[in-house]
Every structure is written in C-alpha cells, then in structure tokens.
C-alpha cells in the first residue's frame, strides 16, 4: 500500500565541510526532523578523492569540477539518508537554489550561505540518484529500517 512504497522513498543529504566546520550540523538535522522525515543513516566521514569524483561524475566536464572535488574532500562531511513520501523533491525545497544568493530566505542555503562554492549542503536531484548516492556513501549495515507500523504518526 501507500505506506510501504511511496513512504520508503529515500534521498542522500550531506553537510559539506564548510557546514560541519561552521557548526551547522545540528541546525540542518533539526530542519529535516521537524519537517517529519525519518533518518535512516547518519555518519561523519572524511571523503576520499575517488568517491567525490564518483559522486559528482555527471559534472566532470564542468570547469569548476576540480575545485568541487577539492572542496568536498577538504574536511569531514556528515552523510545522511532521509526517508519519507516525496523526500527527494522536498529536501531540494528545504535546501534551496544551488547559488545561495538566489536561494529563498527560509531555505537552508538562503538562510545560512552566500557562495555557490561554499553552499553548505548537498541533496540528491532525483529518486534514481538518491538510490545511487546512498549506495555510494553507505554500506547496507549502516542503514536502519524503520518499522512504520510502530510509528503511525510518521507517514
Ligand atoms: P548538490 O549536488 O551539491 O546538492 O548541488 P546542486 O544539485 O544544487 O547543484 P549541482 O549543479 O549538482 O552542483 C554541484 C555543486 O557544485 C558546486 N558548484 N559550483 N559555478 C560554480 O562554481 C559551481 N556550480 C556548482 C556547488 O557546490 C554545487 O552544490
Ligand atoms: Mg546536484
């Protein structure tokens, strides 16, 4: 039924090194929790160069790609898998536009960042990429399965 399929949608969200260093991890987790999504995976992690390149492989021809890889590997990130109905699109809304100067107030980037090269957070841009990225960043044993029948207030 609806609560077993659609509500199992997952997205990969990551606090980038600037967000970790600026002490924004709690604030960011809090926004997703308060929205009503379920945290299925969470860890702090120093990303190796190979993984950063793989994660952003769709952007490898862009002029900013080397800088982007350097940024993501410049310090620990906080990796998260969030789950819930429509979580991929909703997370992108909570996060705001790629360029923080274009991001609406009330969004994470709109409230907490000023530069595209230091935009604090990542969120998957499609359901397929969410699955791909969670597979890249997490091992099976690092992800928790919520028992929805025991948490009826969570959709
Ligand atoms: P993300 O993947 O990190 O969630 O960001 P996004 O979907 O909003 O944007 P995307 O096009 O996927 O770009 C990935 C990240 O690359 C950096 N970037 N720099 N012009 C630039 O210098 C530039 N453009 C993009 C940003 O950190 C962006 O989040
Ligand atoms: Mg992207």
UniProtKB/TrEMBL annotation:
EC number: 2.7.4.6
Record-linked Gene3D superfamilies: Nucleoside diphosphate kinase-like domain
Transmembrane segments: none
Highest taxon of the lineage: Eukaryota
Needed co-factor(s): Mg(2+)
Signal peptide boundaries: none
MF annotations from Gene Ontology: ATP binding; nucleoside diphosphate kinase activity
Catalyzed reaction equations: a 2'-deoxyribonucleoside 5'-diphosphate + ATP = a 2'-deoxyribonucleoside 5'-triphosphate + ADP; a ribonucleoside 5'-diphosphate + ATP = a ribonucleoside 5'-triphosphate + ADP
Amino-acid positions noted as binding ATP in the UniProt annotation, renumbered to this chain: 16, 64, 92, 98, 109, 119
Catalytic site positions: 122
Residue stretches making up the Nucleoside diphosphate kinase-like domain: 8-145
Entry keywords, A to Z: ATP-binding, Kinase, Nucleotide-binding, Transferase
Pfam families: NDK
Biological process terms in GO annotation: CTP biosynthetic process; GTP biosynthetic process; UTP biosynthetic process
SMART domains according to UniProt: NDK (SM00562)
HAMAP family: NDP_kinase
Family (UniProt): Belongs to the NDK family.
NCBIfam families, per database record: PRK00668.1
Name of protein: Nucleoside diphosphate kinase
Organism for this UniProt entry: Selaginella moellendorffii
């Amino acid at each position: 039924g609806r609560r077993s399929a659609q509500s199992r949608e997952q997205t990969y969200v990551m606090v980038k090194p600037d967000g970790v260093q600026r002490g924004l991890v709690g604030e960011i987790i809090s926004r997703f929790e308060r929205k009503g999504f379920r945290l299925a995976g969470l860890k702090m992690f120093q990303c190796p160069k190979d993984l950063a390149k793989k994660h952003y492989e769709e952007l490898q021809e862009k002029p900013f790609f080397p800088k982007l890889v350097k940024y993501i590997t410049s310090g620990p990130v906080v990796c998260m898998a969030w789950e819930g109905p429509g979580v991929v699109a909703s997370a992108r809304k909570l996060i705001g536009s790629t360029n923080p100067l274009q991001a609406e107030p009330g969004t994470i980037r709109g409230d907490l960042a000023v530069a595209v090269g230091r935009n604090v957070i990542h969120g998957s841009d499609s359901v397929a990429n969410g699955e791909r990225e969670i597979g890249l960043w997490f091992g099976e044993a690092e992800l928790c399965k919520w028992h929805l029948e025991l948490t009826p207030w969570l959709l």
